[in-house]
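Input record (one chain):
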Amino acid sequence: MKRIGKTLLVTLGIVGLSLVLGALTSREVRAAVSALVTVSNTIANPVPVDTGAKNAFQTSVSLGLSPQGITIPAGQRLVVEFITISGVAFSNSGPIQPSIILQSSLTGGGSASYYLEPGPSPVNIPGANQLYLAQPTTIYADNLTVSPAYAGFAPAVYTFNVNISGHLVAVP
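The corresponding structure, as predicted from the sequence alone:
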């Protein structure tokens, strides 16, 4: 019986100490009262909504030695998000490094040129100089042209497929 009394006394002491420490260390937290929020969007100024795939854009260009324009709908801006390039380029005279240039301009804004250099395929096929590139990017364009370029000797063969994907947004 004496043992139960001691155990009960120790337990009550721990509970009492916990209550005292809890009361001393606790802080009262009050929530701040905020002002009412008024949403005043109109049909002319709607709340932005993620349209997802609704404004998706994809195109493929077969590129030789002549530039190719990309058609972007009027009143829209293309946001390029991913590029893939595959093709063949070689010269009978010496080494060549092909490049693909994306020339972008914004209506009422600046312009920029983005140089992309496809590299050799890891698969070595004798007689074929296969090149490729696949990468994410961010390019804004109201007007976009895909142009060929190269460093080194003049190409005997220069043919590439350029795939562009992204989405369209309304021009502000």
